[in-house]
Amino acid sequence: MTVSDTERRAMAHALEIARRGPTGVNPQVGAVILGPDGDVLAEGWHHGAGTPHAEVDALSHLAPGAARGATAVVTLEPCNHTGRTGPCAVALLEAGIARVVYALPDPTPVASGGADRLRAGGVSVKSGVLADDARDLLSSWTTMQMLGRPHVTVKWAQSLDGRAAAADGTSQWITGPDARTDVHRRRADADAIVVGTGTVLADDPALTARRPDGSLYEHQPLPVVLGDRAVPDDAALRQHPRGFLHRSGANLFGEHAGDEASDSLLIELRELGVQRVFVEGGPTIASAFIRAGLADEILVYIAPTLIGYGPDGTDHPAVRMLGVDTIDQQHRLQMTDLHRLGDDLLIIARPSSTPLEGVR
To answer: What is the CATH number of the domain that holds 79?
Structure first.
């Protein structure tokens, strides 16, 4: 079953308008209704928990019977369950939709099955259209639904030779202003930002999400500090508009901690009760999340500079102990994107093998 260029363009638009909806316990979903001639009849998106789903929102803009014989292009498989609203699959059937094109299957057992219900009702159904783009949009929601924890992005900046700081521990700034602007934009997309006490003591970060002019983004991630050492009374972090959380247990995040550390990190993530976590707390914390298999996405900002190590052998690598004793244990990554940011490079990667492999 082929997909027309018109349907692909409609899916791209549906993904764009899906982002207008809020993030949270419900996915961001967009829908476009196409007439038999390919004209856009209506569009809609999910406006939040308890409101009509994207398909129903789109249908609500049409007169009764106007969708008969039309095609519904949706970013997520129409749901097949009754919650605060009725099944979208039934709404599409009752509206007389003749064809449904969607990007991703619904991964939740309670809501899946809409495609089968539509086919049973005589509707032509096609899945997998712009699926990679939809995965990117729904990655945090999918992680929460399937794994019961937030989607974790681990970020660090490094020199070309893999150092995160000079021999004396100074690290501001390895990368240039364009890279730092990109980091702040990504912070603003996160619900929480995680650092270790070592980063707080060494860099005194504010952990706010700021625009290039210094003003704050409307949305600020909640700072979370991991480690036993105290946060100084005069730390910039104490001026954060959302305050901060301090979680003790530094012994669980050290380089030689084992399964207990992984379990502890997972518990900490789940107790945060958020969907998107941005980890930028230095080599120890970054390595702990990677070693525990909790890094869903890795951002590496690489500056064209060389640092090396100090005359006494002091070294500050970007990552530390990862549990790799032989090359067969290396953490293989799949590079998903590459950006030039001024003089710096940003590599975006994710683990080659993840618990969500079936969903991908």
So the answer is: 3.40.140.10
Residues composing the chain = 360
Instruction: Locate 274 and state its tokens.
Output: 């958020």
Catalytic residue among 7, 55, 268, 280, which?
55
55 is catalytic: yes
Give 27's contacts (C-beta < 8 A, 6+ positions apart).
46, 76, 138, 141
Q: What is the pTM of this model?
A: 0.79
Same domain, 324 and 194: yes
Q: 112-148, pLDDT tens digit by residue?
A: 889 999 999 999 999 999 998 998 899 888 888 888 8
Q: Are residues 265 and 335 in the same domain?
A: yes
Neighbours of 277 (CB within 10 A): 27
Q: Residue 237's pLDDT is what?
A: 92
Whether the predicted pLDDT of 261 surpasses 50: yes
Domain co-membership, 14 together with 117 = yes
Sign for the CA dihedral angle at 5, 6, 8, 12 comes to positive
Q: Which of 44, 38, 51 is nearest to 16 (CA)?
A: 44
* DSSP states along 137-192: HHHHHHHHHHHSS-EEEEEEEEETTSBSS-TTS--TTSS-HHHHHHHHHHHHT-SE
What is the pLDDT at residue 250? 46
Q: Apex CA 292: angle with CA 163 and CA 181, to 5°?
A: 45
Amino acid residing at 46 = H
State pLDDT tens for residues 272-296.
Answer: 888 899 998 788 889 889 988 899 9
